[in-house]
Amino acid sequence: MSQPYMFPPPPASDAIEWPGTPIGAGNTITRTKGRTAVHDKNLDRYPGRRDDLVAAAQAHLRAAGEGERAFIHDVVIHGVRVRAITNSPHLYDFWVDNWYSPQEWRAVTGTEPPAAPQVMVYAMGRVPDQPEAAYYSRRTNTIVFFNTAYYGQLKSWVLGAVGRVLAEEYGIHSVHGACVEKDGRGILYIAPTGTGKSTSSYGLMAYPHTRFHSDDWVYIRYTYLTRDGRRVHPLRVAFPGGEVRGYRVFGWLEAVARTGEGVVHGLDTLKQRFDDRMAKGRLDYLPITAGLLGDKAVEAVLKHFLDKDRRHEFYQFVREIQELYEILSPDAFLRPYLDDYQALTDMYRIVRSAYDPGSEIDRDFLRKTATLMQKHTKSGAIFEPDKEYKLDAEALEAIASEPKPDIVKIFNLIKSFHTLERTEGAQEPVLIAIAERAAEIARAFEEGQLSSQQTLEQLEDLVRRYREVQDDPARRELSAEAYLVYWLLTEQGNPDAHAVAQAANTAFAQHPHWMRSSEQERQVRIELAKALRSANIKAAEKITAFTERLLAVLRKAAE
User: What class does CATH assign to 38-170?
Assistant: First the structure.
C-alpha cells in the first residue's frame, strides 16, 4: 500500500532543504526545525567579525555554480525596508509571501517606502566552511544565517531588528506578546513562548465586546504625563545643537526637560498639521468634483490632473495626510474628517490607477479606516466600476465602445493593457510589448502630443492588433520567445518575420539558460543577428536595437 505523504531523507549531507510529497501549493522539508545551535546577537563585541561573515556570504554567492540560484528581494515591514539575499528557494518563497514589496507597500499605504534598506539579511545554505549558525550585528542592523532554512528563526530575528529601528526612530516598541481589546481597552499578555499567551487571548474572545488584536507581536507607543495632566506621545525633541528621536525622547524629558531648552513634537502638533492639510484639501481638491457623480466626476479628476507636476504635488499632499492619519488613528479626533478624507483618498486612487498603472492601488488601501468609515461616512461622488471583465480582445473592445467620456475610456484601456501585462505577460511576453506600446501612447497624450480623439483611435487600433494576436495561428506554432520576435518584426512590416522567428525558435531551444549564462546569451545574439541579416536588416545598430528590446522584454517576463 503506497503512503500518501512521505518525508524523504536529505539528498545530500549538506542539503538544508528538499522536497517532500506535495501538499497543497508545495511541501519543503528543512533540516533545521528550530533555533540554530550557534546563535550570537552580540556580534559587535568582536571587531571585524560582522564584516568577515558578510564577506563569507558574498564569496559563496560569487563562487556558486551555474545551477545554484541567488535571490535578492526588498520588503517593507511596518515602514522599515529590509533586504534579504539568499540562495534558499524556501526562505525566498516565504519571504516574498509574508511581507509587502516596496511596490505593494506604496500601493496599499499610498506612502513612499524608504529608498535604501535599513536592515540587511544574508541567508546562505551549503557553505562548507561555516557552521549552522545565526548572527546579528546591532551596530549595522545586519543578520547573517548560514546553513539553515528554518524560516521561523529568520522571521523572529528580522522582526527584532525592525523593532529596534521603530524604537529608535519613532518611539514604537515591539513586544513579543498577545493582545485583545475588551470594552475599548487593551489587554496585553507578555510571557515566554509556550506559556499560554495565545490560549489565554483566544479564551477572552468568548466574552462580549472583545476584539482580537494579535497573538505574537504587539507594537506599543509610550505616552508621557505632562504637568498639566495631559498624556502626549512625543516623537522627537529639537534643541540647540541637535535633536533626539524615538525612545530616547523619554530619557531627555526625564533628565533635561526641567532645565534644558527644546521643542517637543508630539501628537498635538500632528493633529494641528492634519487639520491644516485637510483645510487645504477642501479648498484645492474637493471642489474638482463638486456636483458631479460617477463617470463625470472621474472625467473631471482625470482632466484636472493631466499635468504631471500638478499630479506629483497632489501625491505628496495625500501621502502626508495618510501618514498623519496612520500615526493618529484610532482617535475620535479623526471622525469629523472622515468623509473628506475618504473623498481625497478615492480621488488619489483614481489618479494613481490611471496615470501610474504600474503602482496599482490595492482595494485594501484604506485598511485602517475601513471600520470607522463604514459607520461614519456616506458614498462619495467618485467610485470605480464594479463590473468585472475577463480581459481578452472582446473585453477590450467592450471597454472601447462603452458610453463613457473619452478620457475615462482612454485610461480604462491603458489600465487594462497594464493588467494584461501583469497577469499574463510571464506566459506571453508579446503582451508586455503591447502594453509598452499602450504606455507610449499614454505618455504622448499626457505630454499634449496627441488629442483625446487621436489617443483613443491609437488605443483602439492596439486593441485590434491584440485581437489579431489572439487569432494568429503562428502564436500556437512558435514558442513564446519566437512569437515575440515574429510580432515585433511584423509591426515593422518585415516580410521575413516568420523565417526569423523560426530561427529564433531554434536558438532559444538550444540555449535555454541564456538569462543565467553569458556564453548562451552570446550564442543567442549571434543566431539572431544571422537571421536578421538574412531578413534584409543589415545595419548593425538596427540589429543591436532590435535584440536589446527583445531580450529586455523577455527578462521582464521572467521577473
Answer: alpha beta
